[in-house]
Design a protein that fits this description.
With 475 residues, this protein is of the alpha/beta class. It has three domains: 132 residues, Fumarate Reductase Iron-sulfur Protein, Chain B, domain 2, CATH 1.10.1060; 160 residues, FAD/NAD(P)-binding domain, CATH 3.50.50; 153 residues, FAD/NAD(P)-binding domain. 34% of the residues lie in helices and 17% in strands. The protein contains 18 helices and 18 strands. Strands 5-4-3-6-18 form a five-stranded parallel beta sheet, with helices on both faces. The protein has a five-stranded parallel beta sheet with strand order 8-16-9-10-11. Strands 12, 13, 14 and 15 form a four-stranded antiparallel beta sheet that branches. Strand 3, helix 10 and strand 4 form a beta-alpha-beta unit. Helix 6 packs antiparallel against helix 9. The N and C termini lie far apart (52 Å).
Length: 475
């Protein structure tokens, strides 16, 4: 049983520890830290499912995966059938099994977890099933029963775009995916570090799509290399699944154009190294430097853990709220602490300190939580006279992402006030006939599993539209 602590009148369950390499070993490189379970271990873990009758794990999963069913099959030495069941609801089980914040989703809803025991390690079993499937040839190629003449252009080769391409090609549509990068995968390739998701895991999914007839046009940015109007003329339907990549920036005195590093640029540079790309001028690296990462989400955790592996002299995460109110995965915080990251909770950046053109530190205000109004989140206010300085050679901004100004390329595309694309309540249809949107472009920055879900659902709506030529259009 894991510990339960009482803090501020609420019970907080400590994150369960997965089977993973020691911090000393795993920080030597960028390989995945989780130790793959043996067949015996995976089956034993799956057998812990209590078949509780009310599948809280399934209800907590954005994909509504049939978790109790494939856990039971795994426990009964029916891994191939378990894989088939897992594949019915997800186009990327082995990827979601690795990177989903299960502690906030399926495992957090597990009846064992709710009873104070360690949850079933659902994510590790899901990833194990996927690895077994690829290793044993259980992953069936995409071979549509009948080819359809209609074509679909998908903008974005990230999780939403790849999931939609899988489903649409399986229905026989001619699918072309456009992406600005030189590799398909989006954030799965360039944003998420290898210690959470090794790139061959993503590439084999892309290879399956290519083998199934999906066409990829890489190095092609919509609005620059091709217009949306041209894509609409070229395809019967266009799906916008390009995600959100515009970083939110720190507003503080002392911040100049080169004084900070954007989180995604930092992570992309390291992922390119891992992929074998030649080193380029301007690529960021933290070896021997004092690193401060501002932010408390999963991207911030990716940055601090990357800096440790690059050999930083020190790594500090500065977050304005406390541990219990941070948006990132509690499991990732534990991993980061084990690897030597220092957390400055309740610290908000006030200014960047510099000497000449060189950043030397971050001045931060010590914050405190206020009492929450009924039904509202506790606010934060500065503690008078409690400012403090953190030495830094590199300051990484991990403050989240906003949609890019896509409307500049297509003024007739209706957006919400926050810049995300407005779609119909259930149809994923935009204000432009024959144009759909899904994933972060619609939701804002969110989880990969939600992008997969929306990519699959959007594909189903596109299939319905092409077969009936009717659609709900966003007002």
């Amino acid at each position: 049983m894991h510990k339960t602590l009482k803090q501020g009148g609420t019970f907080v369950v400590e994150p369960r520890r997965l089977s993973k390499a020691s911090a000393e070993l795993r920080t030597r490189g960028f390989g995945e830290i989780t130790i793959p379970p043996s067949t015996e271990t995976a089956e034993k873990q799956a057998s812990r499912c209590t078949d509780c009758g009310v599948p809280f794990c399934q209800n907590a999963c954005p994909l509504q995966n049939n978790i109790p069913d494939w856990l039971r099959l795994s426990a009964e030495n029916e891994a191939r059938e378990a894989w088939r069941v897992a594949s019915l609801t997800s186009t990327m089980p082995e990827i979601c099994g690795r990177i989903c914040p299960q502690d906030r989703l399926c495992e957090g809803g597990c009846t064992l977890n709710q009873s104070g025991w360690d949850a079933v390690t659902i994510g590790s079993v899901e990833a194990w099933l996927g690895d077994q499937a690829f290793a044993n040839g259980w992953v069936e190629p995409i071979r549509p029963q009948a080819e359809r003449g209609e074509s679909v252009g998908i903008v974005g080769a990230g999780p939403a775009g790849l999931a939609a391409a899988d489903r649409l090609r399986s229905e026989g549509y001619q699918v072309t995916v456009y992406d600005r990068h030189d590799r398909a995968g989006g954030l799965l390739i360039y944003g998420i570090p290898g210690f959470k998701l090794e790139k061959h895991v993503v590439q084999r999914r892309v290879d399956r799509l290519i083998d199934g007839g999906v066409q990829f046009v890489l190095g092609c940015e919509v609005g620059k290399d091709v217009t949306l109007t041209e894509l609409r003329d070229r395809h019967d339907v266009v799906l916008l699944a390009m995600g959100v990549y515009q970083p939110r920036v720190l507003s503080a005195p002392g911040r100049g154009p080169d004084s900070t590093v954007a989180a995604l640029s930092y992570l992309t540079h390291q992922n390119r190294r891992d992929l074998g790309d030649a080193e380029q001028d301007g690529w960021h690296e933290a070896r021997g430097k004092r690193v401060v990462v501002i932010g408390g989400g999963d991207t911030a955790m990716d940055c601090v853990r990357t800096a440790v592996r690059q050999g930083a002299a020190s790594v500090t995460c500065l977050y304005r709220r406390d541990r219990e109110n941070m948006p990132g995965s509690a499991r990732e915080v534990v991993n980061a602490e084990e690897e030597g990251v220092v957390f400055e909770w309740l610290g908000a950046p006030k200014a960047l300190l510099s000497q000449g053109d060189r950043v030397t530190g971050v001045r931060a205000a010590r914050m405190q939580l206020t009492e929450a109004a009924p039904g509202e989140r506790r606010d934060i206010v500065p503690v008078p006279g409690a400012d403090f300085d953190i030495p830094a050679d590199i300051v990484i901004e991990a403050l989240g992402f906003s949609p890019e100004p896509f409307a500049a390329h297509e003024p007739n595309l209706t957006l919400r006030d926050d810049g995300t694309i407005k779609v119909g309540a259930v149809s994923f249809a935009t204000s432009l006939p024959g144009v759909f949107a899904a994933g972060d472009a619609v939701r804002g920055a969110s989880l990969v599993v939600w992008a997969v879900r929306e990519g699959q659902d959007a594909a189903a709506e596109i299939d319905r539209y092409l077969k009936t030529r009717t659609e709900e259009v966003a007002a």
